[in-house]
Every structure is written in structure tokens, then in C-alpha cells.
Amino acid sequence: MDIVASWLAENGDKFWTWVVLPIVVLLGLYLTIRSGVVQFRLIPEMFRTLTNRTPRDDAGEPQSVSAFQAFTISAASRVGTGNIAGVATAIAIGGPGAVFWMWLMAFIGAASAFAESTLAQLFKVRDPNGFRGGPAYYMQRGLKARWLGVVFAIILIICFPFSFSSLQANTITAAVGGVVESTTGAEASGSVAWIVGIAVAALTALVVFGGVRRIATVTQSVVPLMALAYLLIGLAVVAVAWREIPGAIASIFTQAFGFNEVVGATFGYIVLTGIKRGMFSNEAGLGSAPNAGASAAVTHPVKQGLVQSLGVYFDTFLICSITAFIILTGVPDLADAPVGLALTQAALAGTLGQWSLTALAVIIFLLAFSSIIGNYYYGEASIEFISTRRGVLLGYRTFVVLAVLAGSLLSADVVWAFADGAMGFMAIINLIAVALLSGVVFKLLRDYMQQRREGKDPVFTRDRLPGVSGIECWTDELSVTGPIQTMKRR
């Protein structure tokens, strides 16, 4: 098994270095420049649209989940073990400088996140629960390439609800095991993994068999709670180790452009590590978050594009940065430091004491469980793209629950390496589609900005994009805004 993991890791690094990385960076820069740095210029709009009123149907019910609920579904997937174990791994093997590249790629990637979620909104379709969509849908409807959408959907299903959810469950088990060991002084037994695995699998089943509205209800409650809890932990560390903060910040910038003698990382490896772990965490351009973004009922596709850009910032500049400062203030000497979750645990215990491991285990449970739920939803949207047969969806839900149980029991080394490869293929397919459809994104952005300059709350209808086919929704203003809002506008 170790040989397989080593082979996957070695070849995965080559694949990312020579194929994935150039595409991610170049397209992100292209979208940034052509959009007029939309991810910075329209930050106030991101917050405004996040709380927009949800359009309602003739019966007065919400047409689908709200912009905020879609934000929390995508944040639920983004904010997970990548923010704690992933950031710790990046720092342990790439040094503090890896954090700089995570930050930089989050800023560049926010433009890709804007484009992909705007497209997902434009080409979304109706279903009995509201809307669904994502990269597979804009590949079929925008590029007229259903085969490409099916390939993407299959890779996403393998990557997120199976591989990544297994990793989340594995991290929950490791966190609980760490608490047991610190409390009893003995190594956690195999029964701990079984107990945790069964519990997490049962909770997953309760949520995923309830449909998208239950998922939205759970995530809109859990995501703000876990972010606040982790922020408080981070503030506690900063308060105790405040003298170390200037040195931690300095090390992030000074070690971003050269060899790190402590961990033995070269410049290229520092960059690669920061970008890979950053992309795993914030998912910008990966093609996962648009599946959640498409589910929202909004009055203009650009609105959800802006909301999903904000999600990238929320993940990287807030949650990932908390982990970075916890580690760099708690373990300033990274020589021989443990890798992954153990590094974050060591930093917390060293700064706040053993009690903090229990608090971290609770936070990790919220982070990882919410990610499992978000990952499941991405897979459901992809399953429904391939087949709408109820039996297929039922089988998918069952396999997701089993994957969570298996992830609690198995070693994660091979799954991490395999997931990195799947993530790279996902990003390539999605970003190529985004590049080919980028002209549509810029037209939508111009339409949105024109309406804002006219003092309007932007409303899009498909007649505003003549010549673009494959748009199922957005037929007229009444269907987009709902009867009440339409009457108010007139």
C-alpha cells in the first residue's frame, strides 16, 4: 500500500506541475484581467447579494434555496479537513511560505469561482425541489457536449462524495482518537474507529435521505457555528502567543520565494504545495462549488457568481489563516514537526493545553461533517445529470453512507493521493469549459453593471443574451423575480 501511495504522490506532483498548474494560473489571471479584477472591485456587491430576498413562486414559497443557503452548502464542502489538516500539511512540507501561495491563489482563483458559478446559474435547470446545475450542465447546454459533462460528472462523483468524504470521516476518527489518547494515556483501540464511523454514517444518512432543502437547513446552521467556534479558538491562541504573531507573518512572506532550510522545501515545491492545498481547500475553479451555486434562486446569474467568490475568501483568508497562525505561533520550529492534523493538535496543546484537543475535535466534527454533506450534494447534482431514475439516486445515497463508514476505518494515504489526481482532472475539464464560455460571463457581467449604474436591482432574462442557446430558465421577469417583486419593480 505504501508503494502505491508513493507512486501516486510522485506522478501526481508531475501532473500538477506540468499540466494542472499552468492552466489554473493562466486562466485565473486571464479572467481577473478581462473582468476588471471583479473579485476585488465588487467586494461590496458580494455582501449585498448574499442577503438578497429569495424570489418566490405563485404560492408565496421560495423558488429554491436562497443565495445564503447556497453559499453555506458550498462553504460546507469547502470548509473541512483541508482547512486544518490540509493547511498543516502544507506548512509541514512547504514551510510558512506555502501560506503566501495559498493566499495569492485564493485571490486569483476567486475570478475563476465567479465565472464558473455565473455559468452554472445561467444554464441551470428546474427540478421538483427548485434548481440544479453545475459544470456538467453548462458543458451540455453551453458547449453542446453532453459527453464531456458525463465525464466530468463521473470524476466529480469519484472525487467528492466518495474520496473526499472518506477523508473527512477519517479525520473525524483521528481527532476523536487523539482526544482518547490524551485523556487515557493509551493508544485508541480499533473499537473507537467503528463507533465513530457508525455514528457519522448514521448522521449522514439522516441528512442525505432528506433532500436538498434539509441539506440547506443543516448547513446554514452548522457553517456559521463552526466558523465562529474556530475563530474563537484562533483568537485564544493569538491572545496567548501574541508576541509570536509578527514573526509568523514575516515568515509567511520571507519564506515564500526561496529554499526553506527547516523543512527542506525548494521554491517550486513551496509554490506547488501552497497551490494544491489551497485549491483542495477553497475549490476555486475546481467545478464543485457551481453545483451548489446553481441551486440558488436569484434574479441575476452574476449575483451567485459574486457570492461564490466571497466563499473562496471566507475559506482561505479566514479559516485557513486561523490554522496557519495557530501553527506558526504554537510551533515556531518546524524541524521534525508532525504532518497533518497532528501538527495542528500539537500547536494547540502547546499553546492552550490539553483541553483544547477536545474543543478541536468538536470543531473538526462540525467542519468534516458539513463537508460530507456538501460533497454529497455535489454528487447528487451530477447523478441527476446522468440519470434521473429514483433507484440510481437511492443507490448513490447508500454508497455515500458506506464510503463514510469505510473512510473512518481505513488509512487515508492512498485516498489522499488518488483524490489529488482526480481533483486535477476535474479542474482541467472544468477550466477548459469555463475558458470557452468566458465570453458569455463577460457579457453577463456588463449587463449586471449596466443595471446597477441605472440604480436597479439587476434582473436577467434570456432575451438579454441574444444568440446564446441552451438556457432553460430565465424566461421572463415574472418567472425570475416572482409576482410580488415584479409588481414592486413596475
Secondary structure: helix percent:
over 70%
Query: How many β-strands, per DSSP?
Result: 2
Strand count, sense and closure of the main sheet? Answer: 2 strands, antiparallel
The outline comes out as globular
Mean pLDDT, nearest integer? 80
Number of separate structural domains: 1
Could you tell me how far the N terminus lies from the C terminus, measured between alpha carbons in angstroms? 66 Å
Tell me the radius of gyration.
22 Å
Q: Which spans of ≥5 residues are poorly predicted at pLDDT below 50?
A: 486-490
- N-to-C order of helices and strands: HHHHHHEEHHHHHHHHHHHHHHH
Structure description:
- It contains 21 helices and two strands.
- By secondary structure, it is an all-alpha fold.
- The chain has a single domain, classed as Amino acid/polyamine transporter I (Up-down Bundle).
- Strands 1-2 form a two-stranded antiparallel ribbon.
- It is globular and about 65 Å long.
- The chain starts with a helix and ends with a helix.
- Residues 486-490 have low confidence and may be disordered.
Tell me the layout of helices and strands:
Layout lengths: L1 H33 L3 H4 L1 H8 L16 H12 L2 H14 L2 H26 L2 E3 L2 E3 L2 H7 L4 H39 L5 H19 L3 H29 L4 H10 L12 H16 L6 H5 L7 H30 L10 H12 L2 H32 L3 H20 L3 H24 L1 H16 L23 H5 L1 H7 L1
Helix pairs in contact: 1-6, 1-18, 3-14, 4-10, 4-14, 4-16, 5-12, 5-14, 5-15, 6-11, 6-12, 6-14, 7-8, 8-9, 8-16, 8-17, 8-18, 9-16, 9-17, 10-14, 10-16, 14-15, 15-16, 16-17
